[in-house]
TrEMBL record:
Species: Haloarchaeobius amylolyticus
InterPro entries cross-referenced by the UniProt entry: DUF5779 (IPR043931)
Cited Pfam families: DUF5779
Protein name: DUF5779 family protein
Length: 96
Protein backbone atom coordinates (compact mmCIF):
# COMPACT_ATOMS: atom_id res chain seq x y z
CA UNK A 1 0.00 0.00 0.00
CA UNK A 2 1.08 3.57 -0.53
CA UNK A 3 1.47 6.31 2.05
CA UNK A 4 -1.53 8.19 0.64
CA UNK A 5 -3.69 9.45 3.51
CA UNK A 6 -7.28 10.49 2.77
CA UNK A 7 -9.54 11.83 5.51
CA UNK A 8 -12.99 10.91 4.20
CA UNK A 9 -14.80 12.66 7.05
CA UNK A 10 -13.19 15.96 6.10
CA UNK A 11 -14.13 15.42 2.47
CA UNK A 12 -17.75 14.64 3.38
CA UNK A 13 -17.99 17.78 5.50
CA UNK A 14 -16.65 19.86 2.62
CA UNK A 15 -19.07 18.29 0.13
CA UNK A 16 -22.02 18.99 2.42
CA UNK A 17 -21.02 22.65 2.63
CA UNK A 18 -20.67 22.98 -1.14
CA UNK A 19 -24.00 21.30 -1.95
CA UNK A 20 -26.22 23.51 0.14
CA UNK A 21 -28.79 24.72 -2.37
CA UNK A 22 -31.66 26.94 -1.42
CA UNK A 23 -34.76 27.53 -3.45
CA UNK A 24 -37.14 25.44 -5.47
CA UNK A 25 -38.08 24.73 -9.04
CA UNK A 26 -41.05 26.93 -9.85
CA UNK A 27 -43.32 25.90 -12.71
CA UNK A 28 -45.32 28.65 -14.35
CA UNK A 29 -46.72 30.17 -17.52
CA UNK A 30 -45.08 33.13 -19.21
CA UNK A 31 -48.04 34.81 -20.88
CA UNK A 32 -47.76 38.42 -19.75
CA UNK A 33 -50.22 38.10 -16.86
CA UNK A 34 -47.62 37.74 -14.08
CA UNK A 35 -45.77 40.99 -13.33
CA UNK A 36 -42.03 40.91 -14.06
CA UNK A 37 -41.37 41.84 -10.43
CA UNK A 38 -42.81 38.50 -9.28
CA UNK A 39 -40.42 36.56 -11.52
CA UNK A 40 -37.48 38.71 -10.35
CA UNK A 41 -38.44 38.12 -6.71
CA UNK A 42 -38.65 34.36 -7.27
CA UNK A 43 -35.17 34.31 -8.82
CA UNK A 44 -33.73 36.51 -6.06
CA UNK A 45 -34.86 33.87 -3.53
CA UNK A 46 -32.78 31.22 -5.32
CA UNK A 47 -35.58 29.60 -7.27
CA UNK A 48 -35.28 28.15 -10.76
CA UNK A 49 -38.17 29.04 -13.07
CA UNK A 50 -39.49 26.67 -15.73
CA UNK A 51 -41.98 28.76 -17.68
CA UNK A 52 -44.23 27.56 -20.47
CA UNK A 53 -44.04 30.36 -23.06
CA UNK A 54 -47.37 31.42 -24.56
CA UNK A 55 -46.42 34.07 -27.10
CA UNK A 56 -43.24 35.85 -28.12
CA UNK A 57 -40.55 34.94 -25.59
CA UNK A 58 -38.54 38.11 -26.23
CA UNK A 59 -41.51 40.37 -25.57
CA UNK A 60 -42.78 38.39 -22.59
CA UNK A 61 -39.40 38.16 -20.83
CA UNK A 62 -38.30 41.73 -21.59
CA UNK A 63 -39.42 42.97 -18.18
CA UNK A 64 -37.05 40.72 -16.23
CA UNK A 65 -34.45 39.22 -18.60
CA UNK A 66 -31.94 42.07 -18.28
CA UNK A 67 -32.13 42.05 -14.47
CA UNK A 68 -31.56 38.28 -14.39
CA UNK A 69 -28.57 38.48 -16.75
CA UNK A 70 -27.02 41.46 -14.94
CA UNK A 71 -27.28 39.62 -11.61
CA UNK A 72 -25.44 36.60 -13.04
CA UNK A 73 -28.46 34.42 -13.73
CA UNK A 74 -29.25 32.54 -16.93
CA UNK A 75 -32.13 32.37 -19.39
CA UNK A 76 -32.47 29.48 -21.83
CA UNK A 77 -35.37 29.07 -24.27
CA UNK A 78 -35.88 25.36 -25.02
CA UNK A 79 -38.83 23.65 -26.72
CA UNK A 80 -41.42 26.21 -25.75
CA UNK A 81 -40.11 26.68 -22.22
CA UNK A 82 -37.99 29.41 -20.70
CA UNK A 83 -35.58 28.21 -18.02
CA UNK A 84 -34.49 31.01 -15.71
CA UNK A 85 -31.83 30.34 -13.10
CA UNK A 86 -30.39 32.47 -10.31
CA UNK A 87 -26.69 33.31 -10.06
CA UNK A 88 -24.62 30.20 -9.38
CA UNK A 89 -26.98 27.79 -11.14
CA UNK A 90 -25.91 27.06 -14.69
CA UNK A 91 -27.86 25.37 -17.46
CA UNK A 92 -25.76 22.95 -19.49
CA UNK A 93 -26.73 22.86 -23.15
CA UNK A 94 -23.86 20.59 -24.18
CA UNK A 95 -26.16 17.66 -25.00
CA UNK A 96 -28.42 19.62 -27.33
Amino acid sequence: MSDFDLDLRAVEEHIDEELEIEGSIVLGVLDGETPAEEWIEAISKGNVLVLNVEGNVNELASGFARDVKESGGNLVHFRGFLLVTPPGVDVSTSRL
